[in-house]
Write a structure and sequence with these properties.
Layout: H1 7-16, H2 26-39, E1 43-50, E2 53-60, E3 66-68, H3 74-78, E4 84-86, H4 99-102, E5 109-116, E6 122-130, H5 138-206, H6 210-232, E7 238-240, H7 241-249, E8 260-263, E9 268-270, H8 271-290, E10 300-310, E11 313-323, H9 336-349, E12 352-358, E13 361-369
Parallel strand pairs: 8-10
Antiparallel strand pairs: 1-2, 1-6, 2-3, 4-5, 5-6, 7-9, 10-11, 11-13, 12-13
């Protein structure tokens, strides 16, 4: 027989059966009826010793489902290696002053067979009571022991069924998640191909030579891939805004004085918002490197964001500001970057955008609704 090292271990074992505070079940009710009939007693209980109480999975003749632990007779029986029989509770010093003996229901006789797990952990007892002093015959004691074994068999069966149901439910959720994941992957691949196709056309129209086209297109594909790398960490669902910004500006973090500041709370962007925001930050960074604050040693960039809630809609507020760069003037023609910021973002993300060509530094502002619903549940 294996003993438990602490009472906490015993209670953990008891709770692993997930039986406490469950409704009555015929299989257990039948066993207490059989125990009462076999032992010819008016009261029979399946008593489980919990923390601070004894709880009855099934009972006949007592009329309550639990009592405080300080009234428990089964607690003493549970600690014995064999069946406990007390012919007269009023004559036993351990129980003579128990309210169940001195007051209603004035119990006198007790017999209890320990409910012990296959590993030897005691959980409680199958017990019978009478209101008169008496004893059990050898056959009655044997029957009570066998019925206690049947109680444990029912508890083991009940736990096995519950564990099986848990596995089936986990498998169902896994299959559902995998199905949703495949759907999201198909959606993401389709959107990515459409984005690449748009990049090819837009970059071609805004490039003056093949070398310029190749360089711009390659850089945009690399930026897109970085955003997708962040998305794959969460099964193509969300990507952190700070991580998206860092993928573009990380080269400027080196040196004694960083060339950028990222200011804002943790925000996860859904895939359909993360991709265009990543592309926008790439275009802003590329423009700053060629013409703006990052084109000169003393310039720096500030990216600030916040989340506000208007009624039931949460919105992302994002600002890009450049400082210490060359004097800014409005471009003479619209390239892909300008088109993305001013036309594609409002169309794809329902965003409100504003681009200000402040002589002191470019300023970009975007307000876009956040998509809260996940297609694939998180682990």
């Amino acid at each position: 027989m294996q003993s438990v090292s602490t009472e906490d271990d015993r209670l953990a074992t008891l709770r692993s059966y997930r039986v406490l505070d469950t409704p009555p079940e015929p299989a257990f009710d039948d066993l207490v009826q059989l125990a009462a009939r076999a032992c010819q007693t008016p009261i029979a209980l399946i008593s489980l010793i919990d923390e601070g109480r004894q709880w009855f999975k099934a009972e006949v003749g007592l009329g309550v489902r639990e009592t405080p632990l300080d009234r428990s007779i089964c607690l003493s029986a549970m600690l014995e290696p064999e069946m406990t029989i007390v012919p007269d509770l009023a004559e036993d010093p351990r129980f003579a002053h128990n309210p169940l003996v001195t007051e209603e229901p004035h119990l006198r006789f007790y017999a209890g067979a320990v409910l012990r797990t296959p590993d030897g952990v005691p959980l409680g007892a199958l017990c019978v009571f009478d209101r008169v002093a008496r004893d059990l015959t050898e056959e009655q004691a044997s029957t009570l022991t066998m019925l206690a074994g049947q109680v444990m068999s029912q508890l083991e069966l009940r736990r096995a069924i519950a564990e099986r149901d848990d596995v089936l439910e986990a498998n169902r959720r896994f299959e559902q998640r995998q199905s949703l994941l495949v759907r999201e992957l198909h959606h993401r691949v389709k959107n990515t191909l459409a984005t690449v196709q748009a990049l090819v056309g837009a970059t071609g129209r805004s490039s003056g030579s093949f070398d310029e086209f190749y360089r711009s297109f390659s850089n945009r594909i690399v930026s897109l891939a970085k955003t997708h790398n962040l998305l794959t960490e969460d099964y193509w669902q969300t990507a952190p805004l700070r991580g998206i910004a860092l993928t573009e500006l990380k080269p400027f973090a080196e040196g004694r004085q960083p060339r950028f500041m990222l200011i804002g709370p943790p925000v996860e962007l859904s895939a359909d918002l993360a991709v265009p925001v990543g592309m926008a930050l790439h275009e802003l960074t590329a423009n700053a490197i060629c013409y703006g604050a990052l084109s000169v040693p003393g310039g720096h960039v500030q990216v600030r964001w916040s989340v506000t809630q208007i009624e039931e809609v949460r919105k992302l507020h994002l600002e890009w500001r450049e400082f210490g760069g060359p004097i800014v003037s409005e471009p003479q023609h619209q390239g892909f970057g300008t088109t993305l910021l001013q036309r594609i973002l409002p169309m794809q993300c329902k965003a409100e955008v504003e681009v200000q060509y402040d002589p002191q530094g470019l300023r970009f502002r975007m307000d876009a609704p956040l998509v809260e619903q996940r297609l694939v549940p998180a682990y």
